[in-house]
């Protein structure tokens, strides 16, 4: 059994993924999202296709949206996932001072130039020619959810709008709505006939429990919404380089499924023909074997608990250092990221003086915090913020 995990392609042609393997992968993946006992899965109402990880699933959906709803736009949370692929922050202070002196202009200094940054969700929909808008999400004062502003935006958007929602472990803020708040969001979506598109890149990271992390989607299902979902196995199966993902769309009835799936496949074929084979076989082998699946579920839980433990230790360490600031948000937030509240200047200082690196918006990847470096991190944060 284990040799098939080490080389799941043994005995299978590497030329392409057979339709059977791909559909087994989709069959198992959608159970994670909608629930293994879910009526919509049993009734065959989910059109799913293998996608190029979470990014590819979002992109495929964006193309689909443009094809079939050409006048629509996408509402994205503010802030949302942004990827600083090539964030070149170059300190040009001395050079610019020199130029400024030469030109005799009235500048004191310019610290840094951001040569290139990409805001991923925004770029994905922009590249698919779908206009993007934002809705309120994060409140910097409370370092929590700006729920009333979010609901206002949902109410004020034109009927039938497309909204992207992070069902768990919101990137970059680590702030998720409560169950009660999800119910209210779902209710208001129903009133407005909005379409929820869930981007699930971190299932298991918020609570350690795959079903609990899919709770938001299940609430929408109970309210009879049609939904879309981009699923990534990059983080929760550690398969980043294999680009394993699934795009699913819940259809009104099983008759629609074939049409929607074939349209998604047609769009994918024009963009990249077919997705890679190796990772998808790993995932479908694990998900379709009860023993292997239970091992994976345990590992996800262990990993999520470790991150939670690091949050507590980081907060405790800062409090023990008598930091004058409130760090409760470190443990209130969930998932892989801590939206620390550090300013760009403080982030720069952490990099320059302590060689601690995070995105410029102050987002710390908690997966990189360990028992070995957490007190160094706390000391450095304390030093930069007091
Ligand atoms: N969606 C969100 C919210 C993410 O944070 C990420 C990755 O960072 C993705 C999608 C993309 O995931 P993948 O690496 O599977 O393409």
From TrEMBL:
EC number: 2.6.1.1
Names of the cofactor(s): pyridoxal 5'-phosphate
Protein name as it appears in the record: Aspartate aminotransferase
Reactions catalysed: L-aspartate + 2-oxoglutarate = oxaloacetate + L-glutamate
Gene Ontology biological process terms from the UniProt entry: amino acid metabolic process
UniProt GO MF annotations: L-aspartate:2-oxoglutarate aminotransferase activity; pyridoxal phosphate binding
PANTHER family: ASPARTATE AMINOTRANSFERASE (PTHR11879)
The Aminotransferase class I/classII large domain, residue ranges: 23-85, 119-381
GO CC, alphabetical: mitochondrion
Miscellaneous: In eukaryotes there are cytoplasmic, mitochondrial and chloroplastic isozymes.
Pfam family, one: Aminotran_1_2
Subunit structure: Homodimer.
Family note: Belongs to the class-I pyridoxal-phosphate-dependent aminotransferase family.
PROSITE patterns assigned to the protein according to its UniProt record, in alphabetical order: AA_TRANSFER_CLASS_1
InterPro entries assigned: Aminotransferase_I/II_large, Asp_trans, NHTrfase_class1_PyrdxlP-BS, PyrdxlP-dep_Trfase, PyrdxlP-dep_Trfase_major, PyrdxlP-dep_Trfase_small
Keywords: Aminotransferase, Pyridoxal phosphate, Transferase
């Amino acid at each position: 059994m284990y040799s098939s995990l080490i080389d799941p392609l043994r005995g299978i042609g590497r030329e392409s993924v057979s339709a059977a393997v791909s559909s087994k992968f989709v069959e198992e993946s959608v159970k994670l999202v909608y629930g293994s006992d879910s009526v919509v899965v049993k009734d065959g109402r989910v059109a799913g296709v293998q996608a190029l990880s979470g990014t590819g699933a979002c992109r495929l959906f964006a193309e689909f949206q443009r094809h079939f709803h050409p006048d629509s736009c996408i509402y994205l949370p503010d802030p949302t996932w942004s990827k600083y692929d090539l964030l070149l922050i170059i300190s040009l202070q001395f050079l610019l001072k020199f130029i400024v002196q030469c030109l005799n202009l009235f500048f004191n200094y310019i610290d840094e130039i951001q040569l290139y940054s990409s805001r991923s969700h925004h770029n994905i929909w922009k590249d698919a020619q779908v206009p993007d808008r934002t809705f309120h999400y994060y409140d910097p004062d409370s370092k929590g959810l700006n729920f009333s502003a979010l609901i206002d935006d949902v109410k004020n958007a034109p009927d039938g709008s497309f909204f992207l929602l992070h069902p768990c472990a919101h990137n970059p803020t680590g702030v998720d709505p409560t169950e009660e708040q999800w119910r209210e969001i779902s209710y208001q979506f129903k009133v407005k006939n909005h379409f929820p598109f869930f981007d699930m890149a971190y299932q298991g990271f918020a609570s350690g429990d795959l079903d609990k992390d899919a709770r938001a989607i299940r609430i929408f299902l109970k309210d009879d919404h049609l939904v879309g979902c981009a699923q990534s196995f990059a983080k929760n199966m550690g398969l980043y380089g294999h680009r394993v993902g699934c795009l699913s769309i819940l259809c009104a009835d099983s008759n629609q499924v074939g049409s929607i799936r074939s349209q998604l496949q047609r769009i994918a074929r024009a963009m990249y023909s077919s997705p890679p084979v190796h990772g998808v076989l790993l995932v479908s082998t694990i998900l379709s074997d009860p023993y292997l699946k239970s091992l994976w579920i345990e590992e996800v839980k262990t990993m999520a608990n470790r991150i939670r433990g690091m949050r507590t230790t980081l907060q405790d360490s800062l409090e023990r250092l008598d930091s004058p600031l409130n760090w409760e948000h470190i443990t209130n937030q969930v998932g892989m990221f801590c939206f620390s509240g550090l300013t760009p200047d403080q982030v720069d200082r952490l990099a320059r003086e302590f060689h601690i690196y995070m995105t410029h918006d102050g987002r710390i990847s908690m997966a990189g915090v360990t028992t070995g470096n957490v007190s160094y991190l706390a000391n450095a944060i304390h030093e930069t913020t007091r």
